[in-house]
Amino acid sequence: MTLVGAIGTAPDLLRLVAVPVFAWTAYRDIETRRVSSTVWIPLSLLGAVLLGWDGWLAWSAGGNAWTYEFLIPTAISLGLVVPIAYLFWWFGGFGGADAKALLVLAVLFPTFPEYALGSWSFPTAGTTDIGTFSFTILTNAVLVGIALPLALAIRNAAAGRIAPVMFVGWPVSWERIPKTHGRLLETPAGLSRGGLDLDALRMYLRWRGLSLADVREDPERYRDPTTLPAEPNPPTDGAVTAAVQPRGDGGTLESDADDAVPEPAADSDAPEYDDPWGADAFLEDIDGSAYGTTPETLREGLEVLATEETVWISPGTPFLVPVFAGLVIALVYGDLLLGTLF
């Protein structure tokens, strides 16, 4: 295939547009855990155009270019990576944005690109006999994803934080919780891998018109379900950046506090309630689910956050971060797994 300016083919050069886009989506996934579906549409269209362009170049080149350099890698990319992305999304292993990112990569990078910069050639590790680049990106991303918990454990160990959850999280002050994405790794019974999703917590607080500081100031009051607002506020989707009326500590207040949270009834000092914290009422009232949160998980999380100064959370590193790292590694080096083994 003809190189452009001794750097790479025109389709391969255009594919580099994906690098800043994936960098941006990785950043957005870290900051908000939300990536708009519209970002993938232009990349998908670009990938389809470049796929046809590559096919025409390979057909024109003759020899093995059509079969071994284009047709087989493309068939593997579309026939293997696409189903893997779909199945992992179907079974809950990937989020929607993660699956869409892999689908885009399968179309955009079916074959190994080649770039030359002076005497250097990239990827430096070369290719296999039948190289499917999207699969290389995927395996690189998986290896990066495996390395992240090890790095996290080393970080915790160096700080003297030895705990069963040191591979998946770290401790933070309760004041950071309203602005943090992730999952609580504590229950009243101790450390746990199945704690409250912090987006679900924000949904609950916004629904009640409270802040976490309000809850901590008078937890016994807000355990009483009679203090639920007569007209709950929109819970939003729990994102830190959701368009709501902000309060200093991260909650919302749609109306006057005395109206939003009525005084508890005279017998509210009873030790047991039918629906502590109004967890059942919240989950029944909202449209849809709060990221799979159960009333018990919500109650346990509120009990912990109402009293503890520091709590363990898991940031739940978004998979788009390893995907971006896997893409960059693949473009510069190649296949981490095969390069290491062979």
UniProtKB/TrEMBL annotation:
The keyword Secreted does not apply. One of its GO terms (molecular function) is aspartic-type endopeptidase activity. Residues 218-278 are annotated as: Disordered. The chain crosses the membrane at residues 39-58, 70-89, 101-118, 130-154, 319-341. One of its GO terms (cellular component) is plasma membrane. It is a multi-pass membrane protein. It is found in: Cell membrane. Residues 269-278 have a biased composition (Acidic residues). Keywords: Cell membrane, Membrane, Transmembrane, Transmembrane helix. The keyword ATP-binding does not apply. Residues 17-143 form the Prepilin type IV endopeptidase peptidase domain. Residues 306-336 form the Preflagellin peptidase C-terminal domain. It comes from the Archaea. This is Prepilin peptidase.
